[in-house]
Amino acid sequence: KNGCTPPTETLLFHWTSDTDPSVIHSGEYGFDTNFCSKGMWGLGTYFAQSAAYSSSYAYKSVLGKQMFLTRVAVGDCATLLPDSSLRMPPVKPKVRGTFEVERFDSVSGTTSGSEIFVTYYNHQAYPEYLITFTTP
After folding, report:
1. For 123-134, how does the pLDDT look when each residue is reduced to its tens digit (9 = 90+)?
2. Deepest in the core among 13, 23, 39, 102, taking most CB within 10 A?
3. How far is the C-alpha of 17 from the C-alpha of 34, rounded, in Å?
4. Using H for helix, E for strand and C for coil, what is the string for 81-98?
5. Does the pLDDT at position 96 exceed 50?
């Protein structure tokens, strides 16, 4: 962005709960923020570092539970305490002498032992792998 540091990408898990994963991997927009639900960090698309955390929210299909391993452009990420009123990342601290308002690219926080990342814009994530698994 504007010649600054390159975007930071990472692989994270994404669960779909009640939404069939085909809506994401076969849809026109992939992860579409219009279908997001409000969570601990507001209205955004949620991803987790922990597969165990994500599996508890995985979609239940006839084949087993399903979740994505997703490539996410987290970029310049703000680590925050939960704030369910968020609809976009917060504004970055102002640099003296500038008039620009620049926002972070995403936010992160920790819950239930897993670091969570939240994006608020379409096209920040790509569903690389659909993982289907069963639990004993």
Report:
1. 899 999 999 999
2. 13
3. 16
4. CCCCCCCCCCECCCCCCC
5. yes
